[in-house]
Amino acid sequence: MPEILDDHEGSPSLLSVAVANAELTPAEDVNSNLFDKYKLGKLLGCGAFGKVYHARDINTAQSVAIKVVGKQKIFKGGLTAHVKREISIMRRLRHPHIVRLHEILATKKKIYFALEFAKGGELFSKLAKGRFSEDLSRRYFQQLISAVGYCHSRRVYHRDLKLENLLLDENCDLKVTDFGLSAVGDQMRPGELLHTLCGTPAYVAPEILAKKGYDGAKVDIWSCGIILFVFNAGYLPFNDTNLMTIYRKIYKGEFRCPKWTSPELKRLLTRLLDTNPVTRITVEEIKNDPWFQRGYQEVKSENQFEIKLGLDSAEKFLNAFDIISYSYGFNFSILLKDNGGFIDKERFVSMESREKIIRKVEEVGKAEGMTVVQRSGASVKVEGQNGNFVLMVVVNRLTEKLVIVEIEKRETEGEIWKKKFKPQISSFVYQEEGPNSGS
User: Is there a catalytic annotation at residue 160?
Assistant: First the structure.
């Protein structure tokens, strides 16, 4: 158990607020099976995007956290870019102190993120009981810097580091989560500064308040300084009931370390909370700091990897961006037309086998006197006489039980698709049922 001290030196604390941890509470979806892969358990919490459940992998019994996001909330709330960014970033991060994204699944109405389960809950709730000892503060700060340094080496900048985004696993080791506000450096020109105003007020760096552009790595270091201060003190360095007063203190760098802070730690905090981003300490300099170095061992990260949607690595899988960009109805909505107005693309989800779907398209085409000009295990192309109708159907594996059918057609006369093909293929559309079918 973490060593926790309760002396606050009379300073106001924002950490006394009750925080939900990983204790499990009953949920309506309890004991539901998800794609026959995960057994959903108790509700862990609710957020802006949806709900998070504890679940177990049916095959391995491994605990995971399932984040359930309604597609309507994403599209109608204008959150598509937010979710895409988080997926894009988490796909490239695999580090012992970063919450891992195992895989992404989807149904007609929802997207499911299978995440590493942090059994220890939020670090915030541990601090609500009192400040940490200096040794424990150092241990967690070392783990935080290890994760942040790893992210920066891959040009990923979190931009919302705070206690609420730090979790603990079963060994009470730190895990960084929530990359929804992160920025990716490979989307920027060399030397380009960020300008998006984001972050949590008490953790925001002074250069963000100046609105002149900022370095993502430097603002993460500032936030790490705030976090280390709270580890040691049990309260925030810049604190007031008035938001503008907090901002003024941040901008001026007005803070005072509690009396129990060692001189070495005080020097490090001063360099972390340097209001000048140019002279603010870097990750490498932090790792060489005498206070930080005590007992530090660099952890090894795993090789970069890609999240797959589905389970059979021998087959072609759709990526996360394909799923999110689809219409949330999956019911033959026209998604794209070319400039000539002749090509329509439609998609839907099915539980039927690829072979059965391909065979049905062939049967209908031959019955209408058409020719199969191209055929494989996952696709078929049929053409009508004189080229007045062309239909291409591609079936991609999504999970062990679900496929996504993509239809591209060109029809210059008549309504062959609408009258002949669509009624036959519509019976294959997957209709979501059961306890997980809500929006």
Answer: yes
Give CA–CA dist 274/254, Å, rounded. Answer: 10
Which tokens go with 356? Answer: 């059965």
Separation CA 243–CA 201 (nearest Å): 8
Evaluate if residue 198 carries a pLDDT over 50: no
Who has greater pLDDT, 255 or 298?
Answer: 255
From 29, 160, 215, 274, active-site residue: 160
Determine the distance from the C-alpha atom of residue 318 to the mean position of all C-alpha atoms in its chain, rounded to a whole number: 17
Q: What are the backbone dihedrals phi and psi of residue 315, each rounded to the nearest 5 degrees, phi first?
A: -105, 165
CA 353, 359, 362, 368: dihedral to nearest 10 degrees?
A: -100
Q: Are residues 142 and 238 located together in one domain of the fold?
A: yes
Q: Is 71 annotated among the ligand-binding residues?
A: yes
Residue 386 exposed, middle or buried by CB count within 10 Å (0-12, 13-18, 19+) = exposed
404: number of Cβ within 10 Å = 22
pLDDT tens profile 16-41: 222 223 333 334 444 578 878 899 99
Q: What is the CA radius of gyration of the chain?
A: 26
Handedness of CA 75, 77, 78, 81 (dihedral sign): negative
Domains identified in the chain, total number: 2
Structure tokens at 324: 């999110």
273 and 365 housed in the same domain: no
Which residue type is seen at 298? Answer: E
Q: What does the CA dihedral 226, 99, 17, 67 come to, rounded to 10 degrees?
A: 140
Q: Give the residue among 101, 84, 57, 67 at the shortest CA–CA distance from 306.
A: 101
Of 293, 223, 299, 295, residue with least CA distance to 265: 293
In this prediction, residue 197 has a pLDDT band, given cuts at 50, 70 and 90, of very low
Residue 205 near residue 217, CB atoms below 8 Å: no
Give the C-alpha separation, 200 to 203, whole Å: 5
Q: What is the CATH number of the domain that holds 215?
A: 1.10.510.10
C-alpha 82/C-alpha 87 separation (Å) is 9
